[in-house]
Structure formats: C-alpha cells, structure tokens
C-alpha cells in the first residue's frame, strides 16, 4: 500500500514538473519571440548551435567568389547566367536586347570554361559547355546588337568551340517549343497508382543493388526543377556494407533497421553554389524535389526506399561532416535507404491528410 502511494505521488510530482516546465517554456519563448532583438539574444544565450548555419553560409559565400576563377567541373556562375539568358529568350514578346548587365561576365566565364576544356577535356561537364554554347548562339542571333554586344559576340566566336554533335544530348539545347499535340506517355491514373504504391520500406532483401539501376533513377532525378538550373546538391552513394553500417548509425531515424540497409545515399546540399545568404534554403528545396523524383523512379525499377530524416543537431552534424569529410558549407539534407523490398516486411499505412485540411483556395 505504501509503495502504491509513493508511486502515485511520484507520478503526480512528475506531472506537476511537466506542467511547470511547459509554462516556463511558454513564457520564455513568448518574451524572446516578441521582437527580433530579443530573438537574437535568445539564440546567442540558449541556442548557440544555430550559429553553425551562419558559419556555413559565410564560408559558402567565400568559396563562391574564390572559385569563380579556379578550375571547376561545373561553373556555377555560368549556369546561373545561361539560365537567365534562357528565360530572356522565351519571354513573350522577346525584347530587342537584354542581359546587358551580366552578359559580359557570362562571356568571361564561358571563355574560361572553354580554355579549361582545351587544357583538360575531362575537367569539364561537356553537356554544360554545349548548352552554354547553344544558348549564347541563340542570344547573339536574336538580339539587336550594339557596340558592347558586338564586341562580346566576337570574343564568343573567337573561342573556336564547336560541340561534337555525335555526343550532344540534344540537337538544340536552347529554348524550344514543346510538343503539346501528343499526350504525355504516363496518364494520371498510372501516376497516382505509382504514388500510392510507393511506401517507405525499411526491410530489404539482403542482396546488392545494381549501380546501373541507381544511375537510371538519377537520370529522372536530375530533371527536377532547380532554381537557376544550379542543381546545388550531390548524391553520395554507399554500397560497401561496412560504410553503410557506419553511416546509417549516425542519424536517429534508422534505429532498429540500419543493419538491414543494402545501399545508402546521403543527399548533400552545396551552399557554395550561392553568393547571397538569401538563397541558403534553396539547397533543401531543390534537393527534396530531386529526391522525390528519384524515389518514384526507383519504384518503377523494382527498388524501394525510405527517407531517413536529418536533424539539424550539431553533434550528429559534426559526426557526419567528419565521416564524409564535408566542408562546413556542405549540409546533409536527408539520407535515403535503398534496396529490393523484403516480401515478408511490413510497411506503415501512413494515412494522409484529407484535401480539405491540406489545401485552400485564394
């Protein structure tokens, strides 16, 4: 009887503590969230790990400007400006002349990329160079030139770069008219059934995942929308059991089934693709868009997947950074477990929100 009484008092005591702590949190957060200055003080005093993102963004900006004149397999500034020119070429109506405030730096970057290609063919992304060439050809052919653009056109042509048409991805890589007369080969019901079939699978057959299937899924993933076509992320793929086992234990979300994962992907965002802190969240948006297309493509290839959420928690951030040798400006966005689904493994039903809860108009 005495033990029961002590237990009841203990439970009531814990409940009182939880209630008191809840109100302390509520009052504290209410005070410090009331204005921006107090919010800054709160993060400095109570949540200093938030400064990790600030450090990463600042380091990324430094790398962005430092890398402009260095050898890079992809030219971030060139990709951005070529895509800006693309958008100018598809405007209705197209202006007689545009891009005057950035066409000079675009040509400078293009000439540097061509020079890099001539010195070391394997150091450049040929598709990126061919795309830049085609778009710039379209640009100079469509505008009403002036003394500035005429000079830049001469420099562009003097680079003497000509794409190898036998190796080009497309005949024309500049803006084009879509073929909307023919229906899309996948109908709505098929797409809906694919989305309904895709489940987060945590139990896999213990056999290797062919790399060629992953590459096929990545061909779909890279077609996802990306701000200024930068694709500011990298798929780090691990299929050696010892590495999969080591890395899958770093996040919290794989507890209980990490030992069952055949292939693991760490999707890493690259903050150094941006020159401004205003774009610091784009890596998460673009990487997530790509990841969803990737996982749907996996389903069509007989593979299943599960997203392992990545917490913004400094101890695990540091552990992953050290394991993968990431810079402070490279941020894990998510992990994805991949494998052939185990027929004896269950999946969660995961009821989704109703449309009435999920959406609103106007």
Fold and architecture overview:
This protein folds into three domains: 2-46; 54-158, no CATH class; 188-339, NADH Oxidase (3-Layer(aba) Sandwich), CATH 3.40.109. The N and C termini lie far apart (62 Å). The chain has 362 residues and is an alpha+beta fold. Helix 4 packs across helix 5 (103-119), helix 4 (76-89) packs parallel to helix 6 (126-142) and helix 9 packs across helix 11. The model has no long low-confidence stretch (mean pLDDT 91). The protein has helices at residues 2-32, 36-45, 51-67, 76-89, 103-119, 126-142, 147-158, 188-197, 211-221, 241-248, 282-300, 314-324, 355-358, and strands at 233-238, 263-270, 304-309, 330-339. The radius of gyration is 26 Å and the shape is globular. It is built from 13 helices and four strands. Strands 1-2-4-3 form a four-stranded antiparallel beta sheet, sandwiched between helices.
Task: Provide key terms for this protein.
globular, NADH Oxidase, alpha+beta, four-stranded antiparallel beta sheet, 362 residues, 4 strands, 13 helices
Which H/E pattern describes the elements? HHHHHHHHHEHEHEHEH
According to CATH, the homologous superfamily of the largest domain is NADH Oxidase
Instruction: State the strand order across the main sheet.
Output: 1-2-4-3
Alpha plus pi helix count: 13
Shape summary: globular
The amount of helix comes to: 40-55%
Q: Any idea what the radius of gyration is?
A: 26 Å
Alpha-beta classification: alpha+beta
The CATH topology of the largest domain: NADH Oxidase
Topology, number of strands: 4
What distance separates the N and C termini? Answer: 62 Å
CATH architecture of the largest domain: 3-Layer(aba) Sandwich
User: In total, how many domains does the architecture comprise?
Assistant: 3
**Main β-sheet, in a few words?**
4 strands, antiparallel
